[in-house]
Amino acid sequence: MDSQLQVGFIGAGNMAFGIAKGILSGNVPPTNVKVSAPSLRNLGRFQELNISTTHSNTEVVCSCDVLFVAVKPHLVPTVLSEISHHVTDRHTIVSVAAGVTLATLEELLPEGSRVIRLMPNLPCVVLQGALLFTRGTHAKQEHGALLCSLLQRCGLVEEGPEAWIDIHTGLSGSGVAFVYLFAEALAEGAVKMGMPGALAHRIASQTVLGAGQLLLESDKHPAQLRSEVCTPGGTTIYGLHALEQGGVRASTMAAVESATERARELGRKTAGSGSMK
Ligand SMILES: NC(=O)C1=CN([C@@H]2O[C@H](COP(=O)(O)OP(=O)(O)OC[C@H]3O[C@@H](n4cnc5c(N)ncnc54)[C@H](O)[C@@H]3O)[C@@H](O)[C@H]2O)C=CC1
Ligand SMILES: O=C(O)[C@@H]1CCC=N1
């Protein structure tokens, strides 16, 4: 990767911070990164990473080659209209906004702009993200490869068709929160049975981490690993029976479906009016 490559972020929230941390863990020095946001509130933690910060979105655009647009979806039309005059051949614009489609992004930017739609997730901040991107009309394979090399330390980075981005949003962007809910409930079950809360939460976190790592590294189907934990007539099958009675499988599938549908709805609203309230 070109050591002169300049990276910009518009929006200094949780997701921008996660991606920035991943990028800095690769071979991009903080002096090559700039972030903008209207208030000082979120900028401090970027400054702690020696990233330069500003309140001017156009200043970021004018100084970078790859620009991450990391504001809430309903602000994307306003932000892109504001910076549009400054977007040139130099730029690859990468939007992480849930639901906002390539068609909307391309329409809001000058003809021929290079656009990529990326859906990351919060564990980028610990270099364990799951990211899926899709390239717009004018973003070539080489631009996808450049993005992959920038994000190489963020976690798993995959490319796919745009139709999968909203699904990935439900599965993984939002899915992280579904896993947290499960971890919280695991710990609360232990607290109910008499274990101190702090210990229960530490053990629940390690259980989620260990289960995930084994699932990834073993290359086995989750049902196979589940059966390896179940002793016939033992404790696990009793617990699984209780979960199935609560409809955990159906409600988890419904959660992914519902989050995916919401991403699609956000996309339609952004395409329609530029205002999503
Ligand atoms: N938080 C998450 O887990 C994920 C978020 N996303 C997407 O990332 C985007 C950002 O989400 P978060 O980081 O969670 O939001 P956030 O609320 O933490 O951050 C948004 C940032 O945008 C800044 N901002 C607001 N108006 C602005 C403007 N006019 N110009 C420049 N900056 C402005 C805010 O000051 C704030 O720093 C959203 O579009 C969301 O869909 C995608 C995947 C996961
Ligand atoms: O909840 C949201 O809309 C964002 C997108 C995926 C995760 N957080």
From TrEMBL:
<protein>
    <recommendedName>
        <fullName>Pyrroline-5-carboxylate reductase</fullName>
        <ecNumber>1.5.1.2</ecNumber>
    </recommendedName>
</protein>
<keyword id="KW-0560">Oxidoreductase</keyword>
<dbReference type="InterPro" id="IPR036291">
    <property type="entry name" value="NAD(P)-bd_dom_sf"/>
</dbReference>
<dbReference type="InterPro" id="IPR008927">
    <property type="entry name" value="6-PGluconate_DH-like_C_sf"/>
</dbReference>
<keyword id="KW-0963">Cytoplasm</keyword>
<comment type="function">
    <text>Oxidoreductase that catalyzes the last step in proline biosynthesis, which corresponds to the reduction of pyrroline-5-carboxylate (P5C) to L-proline using NAD(P)H. Proline is synthesized from either glutamate or ornithine; both are converted to P5C, and then to proline via pyrroline-5-carboxylate reductases (PYCRs). PYCR3 is exclusively linked to the biosynthesis of proline from ornithine.</text>
</comment>
<comment type="subunit">
    <text>Homodecamer; composed of 5 homodimers.</text>
</comment>
<keyword id="KW-0641">Proline biosynthesis</keyword>
<dbReference type="Pfam" id="PF03807">
    <property type="entry name" value="F420_oxidored"/>
</dbReference>
<dbReference type="GO" id="GO:0055129">
    <property type="term" value="P:L-proline biosynthetic process"/>
</dbReference>
<keyword id="KW-0521">NADP</keyword>
<feature type="domain" description="Pyrroline-5-carboxylate reductase catalytic N-terminal">
    <location>
        <begin position="6"/>
        <end position="99"/>
    </location>
</feature>
<feature type="domain" description="Pyrroline-5-carboxylate reductase dimerisation">
    <location>
        <begin position="162"/>
        <end position="266"/>
    </location>
</feature>
<dbReference type="InterPro" id="IPR028939">
    <property type="entry name" value="P5C_Rdtase_cat_N"/>
</dbReference>
<comment type="similarity">
    <text>Belongs to the pyrroline-5-carboxylate reductase family.</text>
</comment>
<feature type="binding site">
    <location>
        <position position="57"/>
    </location>
    <ligand>
        <name>NADPH</name>
    </ligand>
</feature>
<dbReference type="GO" id="GO:0004735">
    <property type="term" value="F:pyrroline-5-carboxylate reductase activity"/>
</dbReference>
<dbReference type="GO" id="GO:0005737">
    <property type="term" value="C:cytoplasm"/>
</dbReference>
<comment type="pathway">
    <text>Amino-acid biosynthesis; L-proline biosynthesis; L-proline from L-glutamate 5-semialdehyde: step 1/1.</text>
</comment>
<dbReference type="Pfam" id="PF14748">
    <property type="entry name" value="P5CR_dimer"/>
</dbReference>
<dbReference type="InterPro" id="IPR053790">
    <property type="entry name" value="P5CR-like_CS"/>
</dbReference>
<dbReference type="InterPro" id="IPR000304">
    <property type="entry name" value="Pyrroline-COOH_reductase"/>
</dbReference>
<dbReference type="InterPro" id="IPR029036">
    <property type="entry name" value="P5CR_dimer"/>
</dbReference>
<feature type="binding site">
    <location>
        <begin position="70"/>
        <end position="73"/>
    </location>
    <ligand>
        <name>NADP(+)</name>
    </ligand>
</feature>
<keyword id="KW-0028">Amino-acid biosynthesis</keyword>
<feature type="binding site">
    <location>
        <begin position="10"/>
        <end position="15"/>
    </location>
    <ligand>
        <name>NADP(+)</name>
    </ligand>
</feature>
